[in-house]
Design a protein that fits this description.
This protein is 2% helix and 42% strand. The chain has one helix and 17 strands. The chain starts with 9 loop residues before the first strand and ends with a strand.
Length: 175
């Protein structure tokens, strides 16, 4: 009887979430980034515009604003799968100051373990995954919490999620 040996654990390096490094996968959403900025409301507020390229209009889609309530995931964490949405982008913004992990791979065929990258989103940061970008489902840390999510609704929205398994690749995120 032949058994297939499982590959050794592959540990991802956790990188800080910075806009230039994340650009191949989408947008970092955070106040203070260079861009359109102005004071509003009689000087009592600052407005930071155009922080993400929302892409929801393909095949009759429309933007949908939701709240995801995420439970924290313990680390170390074995990654089970990544997913992608070909018809639209998907933005995640924490509704309170919290950290979360962002695991991504480039658009294209199902990614290999070597293509995966892991970013730590710090307090005050969100992400917008570009259409077709492979990403792990939300990885909330600490106490978990609520995330404002903007993604695609309308025709075909429920069918616009392709999954790619990772268990055989034995990929892990460290503590």
């Amino acid at each position: 009887m032949t058994t297939t040996a499982r590959p050794p654990r592959r540990w991802l390096t956790v990188e800080p979430l910075e806009a230039p490094a994340f650009l191949p996968f989408g947008d970092v959403i955070e106040a203070g980034r260079p861009g359109k900025h102005r004071t509003i409301n009689e000087g009592f507020a600052e407005r930071f515009d155009d922080l993400a390229r929302l892409d929801t209009g393909r095949q009759g889609g429309r933007p949908v604003v939701s709240v995801f309530r995420a439970r924290p995931r313990p680390l170390p964490l074995q990654l089970r799968l990544v997913e992608r949405h070909l018809l639209g982008s998907q933005a995640f913004v924490p509704m309170r100051s919290q950290r979360f992990l962002v695991v991504v791979a480039p658009a294209g065929p199902g990614p290999s373990a070597a293509q995966l990258r892991c970013f730590m989103a710090g307090p005050g940061q969100g992400v917008n995954y570009a259409a077709g970008t492979w990403h792990h489902p939300l990885i909330a840390l600490d106490q978990g919490g609520d995330f404002l999510v903007v993604d695609r609704g309308g025709p075909l929205a429920a069918d616009d999620c392709e999954e790619h398994p990772l268990l055989d690749a034995n990929v892990w995120v460290p503590e």
